[in-house]
Design goal:
By secondary structure, the protein is an alpha/beta fold. It contains 18 helices and twelve strands. Strand 4 and strand 5 form a beta hairpin. It starts with a helix and ends in a 10-residue tail after the last helix.
Length: 533
């Protein structure tokens, strides 16, 4: 009994390590060989023969556990930065951090577990199992980005952001389609790990074919990258402000005037060449004004008087709406303010962060001592939905607050038939630590730019502010936690990309192709000579 039990635990540990390795292929390290090690390892576990007398149901259950262990390792490493959010108010939330991180990894790990179980149940060993893993991994990742509130962070397609050339394929396939190709190529070498010479030769051929597909994708991407040309909108001069205010100080009432003075000093200061400030549109990040800009006449007047003539401030600000029953709804908003002193809300964030901006099932969870991480006792309310904003002397844009940019289907749906010509991402990455989280957030923004052929203007409080052209290239950037400004022209949009026209339609077609291959291989009786490891 000791030996089999030890083997079971060793396989579980191997699955966790495979998942952890695969996560290192994501930003900020982009260690692609680790993705090959991780997914080949997962497929190797799924290829292993059933124990003597073991039913198919038990073999499927074993695959589920191995996939779950893989997912836990993947998300613990890739999302460990979530723990920083619990340290902002350590006195209240630090004790929750290890439990929350494991619960998050275990919950998200159910999607890889489902993919592994379906792979084992509906495929025979060999090439069919490779196709099945690719298909079911892609489908469960798609579900992860859709079910409940969705959380498509750390999707496998983002490994392509590590290459400016490879990233260009997102204009055709999107993140989901690129994820299929990445998993197929990464898992294929597992087919070589067999004692059977014929099967090993087949595995080498499949791996070579997968590499050829990646090579073809890179070649087509290179053609697009070589045609990249920076074109800018005439007359639009942007100034982005990154104040670098720590989350612990951001909401302190006694520091509001000090923070406002910092924003104004940066906004009106000279540019990098020492020339006086000259901008048409000033952009501050998410909740840059930690007060109700609409209602604070004194501070709003100070900002308005400081703005140059014919300029416009676009800023993040909380917004309160009083209801007849004396309740107040709180919104995380994008607002504009001109020299005339009139503040106008133009967008309310509608895809809120659970446990960050609101507490799900508040009546139940609050009794357990839980609360949302964001400042204030009132939950944020969801806005009316996505919208495209048109402002004077500025091409129409789609506002996205913080992690709203991680949802490609919501953005493509709102901009697909509209006249949006760029994306504005106001964010506060102080919650994300100083390495993995902000870098992954920036990588996601670059993917959105290429998918839609739209430039992304990203203003962060303590994250990574940047101007990203529609080829995903960063034309201007401030490093993490820096205090400074970006003066930039606004890049022009490209003609509608294939992805912007059809969304995940290409991904769906690829899934149908894989499903056909899985069914075709599954109908064939497995050949013991070419069987499992």
């Amino acid at each position: 009994m000791t030996c089999p039990l030890a083997i079971i635990w060793l396989r579980l540990l191997a699955a966790v390590l495979f998942g952890a390795a695969a996560a290192l292929a994501q930003a900020p390290w982009y260690l692609w060989p680790f993705m090959v090690f991780g997914f080949s390892g997962l497929l190797w576990l799924l290829q292993r023969p059933a124990d003597p007398g073991q039913s198919s149901e038990r073999a499927t259950g074993r695959a589920f556990i191995h996939g779950w262990a893989f997912g836990i390792g993947y998300f613990l490493v890739g999302l460990h930065w979530v723990g920083y959010a619990f340290m902002v108010d350590a006195a209240r939330f630090a004790w929750m951090m290890p439990f929350a991180l494991f619960a998050l990894a275990a919950g998200l790990g159910l999607f890889p577990a489902l993919a592994a179980a379906l792979t084992r149940r509906f495929s025979h060993p060999g090439l069919g199992r490779l196709f099945a893993l690719t298909l079911f991994w892609g489908l469960t990742e798609w579900l992860r980005g859709s079910l409940l509130t969705g959380f498509p962070w750390l999707s496998s397609g983002y490994v392509w952001v590590g290459s400016n050339i490879g990233l260009q394929a997102a204009a055709y396939l999107g993140a989901s389609g690129l994820g299929l190709l990445a998993v197929l190529a990464a898992a294929a070498p597992a087919l070589i790990l067999t004692r059977n010479p014929w099967a090993r030769k087949q595995g080498l051929a499949v791996s070579a074919t997968a590499i050829a597909l990646v090579g073809l994708t890179l070649f087509l991407s290179l053609l697009r990258w070589q045609g990249a040309e920076d074109i800018y909108h005439a007359g639009v001069r942007l100034r982005l402000v990154q104040a670098g205010i720590s989350q612990a100080d951001k909401w302190r009432p006694d520091l509001r005037d000090q923070h406002l003075a910092l924003y104004l000093r940066l906004s009106l200061g000279p540019d990098k060449a020492g020339q006086p400030a000259e901008f048409s549109h000033l952009i501050w990040p998410e909740t840059a004004t930690p007060f109700f800009l609409e209602r604070d006449n004194r501070r709003r007047g100070i900002i308005a008087q400081a703005l140059p003539r014919h300029s416009l401030l676009i800023t993040g600000s909380p917004r309160g709406v009083d209801l007849p029953d004396r309740r107040r709804e709180l919104y995380n908003s994008v607002m504009t303010l001109g020299p005339d002193g009139v503040a106008k809300p133009v967008y309310d964030k509608y895809h809120l962060v659970p446990f960050g901006e609101y507490l799900p099932f508040r009546k139940v969870l609050a009794r357990l001592g839980l609360d949302k991480l964001a400042h204030g006792a009132v939950d944020f309310s969801s806005g009316a939905g996505p919208r495209v904003v048109a402002l004077p002397n500025l091409p129409p844009f789609r506002p996205l607050i913080c992690y709203e940019i991680i949802f490609p289907r919501e953005i493509s749906a709102s901009t697909g038939d509209s006249k949006a010509e760029w994306l504005l991402n106001l964010t506060n990455d102080a919650w994300f630590g100083d390495d993995f989280g902000p870098q992954q957030h920036l990588a996601i923004a670059r993917m959105r730019a290429v998918e839609l052929g739209l430039p992304v203007v990203r203003a962060a409080n303590t994250g990574i502010s940047a101007v990203i052209n529609p080829f995903g290239r960063i034309t201007s950037q401030l490093p993490m936690a820096a205090v400074g400004i970006i003066d930039s022209k606004l890049p022009a949009a490209l003609p509608k990309t294939l992805y912007r026209r059809f969304g995940d339609g290409i991904f769906a077609l690829l899934c149908l192709l894989l499903a056909g291959l899985v069914i075709q291989r599954h109908r064939r009786q497995p050949d013991p000579a070419h069987g499992e490891l």
